[in-house]
Amino acid sequence: MYNKATTNKRVLVTGGAGFLGSHLCDRFIAEGYHVIAMDNLITGNLRNIEHLFHLPQFEFYNCDVSKFVHVPGNLDYILHFASPASPIDYLKIPIQTLKVGSLGTHNLLGLARAKKARILVASTSEIYGDPHVHPQNEDYWGNVNPIGPRGVYDEAKRFQEAITMAYHTFHGLETRIVRIFNTYGPRMRLNDGRALPAFVGQAIRGEDLTVFGDGSQTRSFCYVDDLVEGIYRLLLSDYVYPVNIGNPDEITIKEFAEEIIKLTGTSQKIIYKPLPTDDPKQRRPDISRAKEILGWEPKISRSEGLKVTYDYFKNLPSEELKTEPKEFSNYSK
Ligand code: NAD
Ligand code: UDP
């Protein structure tokens, strides 16, 4: 399927064994790059990239980027995607989450500077917190509770944006910042607690679907291929300020659970559980900037994307369908 590298460009993808990072590795391999994936596998899985291991233009480094990052040879681009990303993950490993967004980002900015590489960092709609502006545009500064449970993720990502801009203004580093809104697709972890894998996993196991709160909170779900296209265009653009990438098709979580019930044909029903602290009430990206600067907008409808994702989950080995959240006890704080 893949030929050897067709450009002499080398790209480093941190978090390369995770959901988004592995799709980015695929995209850059397909574009003819030499790809180095780096990951400590805390929430990722080598299965996501095992199809690339036989390629001479693909390398994998098992490394905690919060500690020290070394890559021999030149680098043209760095995509920093290492970070726990689901509320269940960052609640269980809050210190690692803070460190990878802050110390890890600092290490990668230093590496980019040493290699004269361009770096793109993965920020998030969470920097808008529980937003007072709707839909969220890039000029909105957000409404984040720094000491709430989500603060470890949100504030690490806000620091990440600040230090990335500082490296750009102070050192003249070529930087890009993508603010990613809820994205879904194959290779999400079924037990990561996010709404889509939670609902699909429950439907497959014959359990009721757990909607938090009254389900009136909204999200806007983007299919992973659309996101990857937006990130690819942003990296190759000359735009240094943050850009929202997401699908503005907004839906309540209750309606979303109903769509999953229909898609999976389950006879289970919705049950209601308490709303987690600081759970944002509404979220929809304003993507005017991405449209104008990158000529980008999402192309894949939720019904198309959900079908592909459901097919992926249905075909997972049965031991993956278990409910228990991932155990992180091996990792030092
Ligand atoms: P994921 O958990 O699947 O992937 C994250 C990867 O980073 C994992 O493979 C994990 O093992 C690795 N990692 C974590 N800490 C590390 C460290 N210290 N050193 C090396 N590797 C480390 O999550 P994802 O959904 O693919 O998210 C990837 C990035 O995109 C994250 O930065 C996240 O904040 C951002 N993001 C994702 C979404 C989304 O909807 N998926 C939305 C907004 C932002
Ligand atoms: N959610 C839910 N049931 C679940 C998991 C999540 O109702 O089993 C809700 C969650 O409270 C939030 C929305 O779905 O309002 C999206 O949650 P997710 O963790 O996917 O993303 P985030 O809150 O980070 O946007």
UniProtKB/TrEMBL annotation:
Sorted UniProt keywords: Decarboxylase, Glycoprotein, Golgi apparatus, Lyase, Membrane, NAD, Signal-anchor, Transmembrane, Transmembrane helix
Biological processes annotated in GO: D-xylose metabolic process; UDP-D-xylose biosynthetic process
EC number: 4.1.1.35
Subcellular localization, as worded in the UniProt entry: Golgi apparatus, Golgi stack membrane
SUPFAM superfamilies cross-referenced by the UniProt entry: NAD(P)-binding Rossmann-fold domains
Record-level Gene Ontology MF annotations: NAD+ binding; UDP-glucuronate decarboxylase activity
Listed cofactors: NAD(+)
Domain of life per record: Bacteria
Domain NAD(P)-binding, residue spans: 12-307
GO cellular component: a single term: cytoplasm
Xref: CDD domains: UGD_SDR_e
Membrane topology: Single-pass type II membrane protein
InterPro entries: NAD(P)-bd_dom, NAD(P)-bd_dom_sf, UXS-like
Pathway: Nucleotide-sugar biosynthesis; UDP-alpha-D-xylose biosynthesis; UDP-alpha-D-xylose from UDP-alpha-D-glucuronate: step 1/1
Family classification: Belongs to the NAD(P)-dependent epimerase/dehydratase family. UDP-glucuronic acid decarboxylase subfamily.
Protein's UniProt name: UDP-glucuronate decarboxylase
Source organism of this protein record: Sporocytophaga myxococcoides
